[in-house]
Amino acid sequence: MNAALPGSHLSPRLEPRAVPPALLEALKLRFGGQFSQAAAVREQHGRDESAFSVPPPDAVVFAQSTQDVSDAVQLAAQFKVPVIPFGVGSSLEGHLLAVQGGISLDVSRMNQVLAINAEDLTVTVQPGVTRTQLNAAVKSTGLFFPIDPGADATLGGMTATRASGTNAVRFGTMRENVLALEVVTASGEVIRTGTRAKKSSAGYDLTRLMVGSEGTLGIMTEITVKLYPLPEAVMAAIVSFDSLADAVNTTIQIIQMGVPIARCELLDATTVRIVNTYAKLNLREGAMLLMEFHGSPAGVQEQVEMVQALADENHGHAFEWAKTPEERTRLWTARHNAYFAGVQSVPGCKAITTDACVPISRLAEALLVSVEEAQASGIPYFMVGHVGDGNFHMGYLIDPSNAQERDTAEALNHKLVARALALGGTCTGEHGVGLHKMGFLVDETGAGAVAMMRAIKNALDPDNILNPGKIFALS
Amino acid sequence: MNAALPGSHLSPRLEPRAVPPALLEALKLRFGGQFSQAAAVREQHGRDESAFSVPPPDAVVFAQSTQDVSDAVQLAAQFKVPVIPFGVGSSLEGHLLAVQGGISLDVSRMNQVLAINAEDLTVTVQPGVTRTQLNAAVKSTGLFFPIDPGADATLGGMTATRASGTNAVRFGTMRENVLALEVVTASGEVIRTGTRAKKSSAGYDLTRLMVGSEGTLGIMTEITVKLYPLPEAVMAAIVSFDSLADAVNTTIQIIQMGVPIARCELLDATTVRIVNTYAKLNLREGAMLLMEFHGSPAGVQEQVEMVQALADENHGHAFEWAKTPEERTRLWTARHNAYFAGVQSVPGCKAITTDACVPISRLAEALLVSVEEAQASGIPYFMVGHVGDGNFHMGYLIDPSNAQERDTAEALNHKLVARALALGGTCTGEHGVGLHKMGFLVDETGAGAVAMMRAIKNALDPDNILNPGKIFALS
Known about the structure:
By secondary structure, chain A is α+β, with helices and mostly antiparallel strands. Chain A has helices spanning 21-31, 39-44, 66-79, 131-138, 155-161, 168-171, 174-177, 206-210, 244-256, 269-279, 297-313, 325-336, 338-344, 363-377, 403-422, 438-460, and strands at residues 35-36, 59-62, 83-86, 103-106, 113-117, 122-125, 143-144, 178-184, 190-193, 219-226, 228-229, 233-241, 263-267, 287-295, 320-322, 350-353, 381-386, 391-398. Chain A starts with 20 loop residues before the first helix and ends in a 15-residue tail after the last helix.
């Protein structure tokens, strides 16, 4: 056992379990070419976008069906060996890392769009479908799926982490948008939760218990989500501010006024500079709000006028418009790539990312000091925010081999989270707990609530085989 | 043990447990005047709006604080005696009935609005606050709370049943609107779930596990919900149709077009007649859509024009407007009283209510045949629907002493639910499972999902003291 406690946030607790050769033989027999112990394959399934480095899983199974998932889990259960679901590996918090060894269950080949029910505004997909694939598949219906984390994540991963993105301010997160699931339980049983009805009071909300459970309570094999009509009119605008505080205060006022803004994103001046370099753009290098408005032409115009007035009051520069779909795509692609732009801005670095979310009125208090602290630390950073939701990310760009930088970054992260919690917020708005925030979860919700989570985990996965060692320690 | 199985929907399974005199003494000592064994008090806490009749609880505790709830639960836990939370008794599904005896824990005196955070659009209340009390308390802030079941239910009861109402088509249900909870667990411990941040990925979604758990997993002692800015403009309209099918099809098209309608309610001609009599109104006695539009003046006008065009295409009569706040209140009060109007239309009757909800495209199939079957049965009925959500209610008005009428009504209910499930819907859109839908829950979600619910219940309430015998049978 590693000496570091999970609460230390510094190094994950490694508790590798023996993987009996008989299990590997049985998996090989059942899965043939869908089974691999090759070092390269294991390595690829043993890392994500987090700054952690731990030994890879013992083997990888490439599932192609619910039956594959069920069979793999049943075999793993028989030998009490961990199973870690894997999509595209875009987790930021170490969700995918095999801290107790075991089998990585890659569902990326389960990438069928199973049923588009346009007349009900729902779609059912397999977990390996990515968000861009989904939107391409439904495009001809005039509908779209709004949840858009930075990476082109799978719907399985997005469901498992309760993901959101730039549209959440208007459309909610995976919490609000998943209607029904098919789930393989820890015993390999296949169950269904929810229906395609828009609402239900039929017993415990197992759907939402699974959403955000990070692979620890079940493995999702079918996901039904809501779709929305493409808006009649869309306008995207950039407004630049000389002061970060002015940009934040504009955001707070937009939300408090109830403007139904579809996207409201913030980058500070440092991050605009990084994005300009990466995406070869010429954005004005001040604090910047990127906004999008949806509705009827008249409705969009009303929203724009309200927001322009608020930005003016807060000393914003003139609005710049992305009028064509191509300009909008370029702008939002740049925003989505801000994480990668940040990481590429410091060769060889790893990003330690934060993900606090606070009640909207406390956003200035939470955000401004955090940026000042990052600047004062001397560690390169970037800052992007889904600020309409009160959610923002710092990325501290550290040399992973430099323990002092890592400590400094973790200390910044600690201060930022402590501040967010003191302001009534959460340590993670959308990335999940994974390995990185296990201590923060206890700080945030209290030992009693974590004990309740642990009791649920014990009840549904008594041998602790589903992505063990994540969210909370069992002992 | 009663011979009738819960799946029979006909009579609840009674399994009274012995309540030791020592517990009653201890409660009396601790709670003094807040404790009662008086027959009238017990009777009042032993019934709800359902058609079931079972013996009342053994005693009633009137909690005035979280500490009271915790102490009462701790004492009950010590003696393994059931505790049933009670608000205003407006459950329609037998949630409050003491089928295993025990203590009714009345939280109606916990009726403080604890914190109005207008700048964050949130409010924190005790569970005994009712929806009209809440809206009165926040009125001066320019905000409102949209969830409005027919009765003036408590926020505790609404959270416990995952309630919705007429505004859910625009604002969602309690599922979407509860942000955070304080909960007393089965051991009497006080825990907190969620924060006031708008979104979070911090571990299992215990908030949403509690929402809709019908008092079986914990007793809510503080509830934080979202508020919304009062719309700049509101217009309410009635449109009457000669054919019920035309009214339903208009609704389906409104939703499929993505009109952001705030309310979209249906009454059939029979129910309009009942409401006219009860509320002394002169509504045209055809199938009727009651609608409300929120937004800017221009936005409301756009919505109205789209809906008028759709209604015209479906042979709707001319729109009638409720223009003043007083006219709107009169109209919506009449709608909210439809249940009571129905019950009063047949002296001495009890209503057996249904609550199916289906994907919007299947609403006509689900609803029209159900109304025809009710008409053919000869049993008086009423029909109201939150049709914008695909949710509708039949109330079969039976003589509770007439076994044949009850059987006929339950048979109608069975057919209606089976049809909704076959169409991809749910047996309960907003009322909850309670005693009445335990069999339907299994039909809907399958034995595997119910087994998962049972495992969670066993883990969080191992002695089965929190509102036992509801949602599912433990054995």
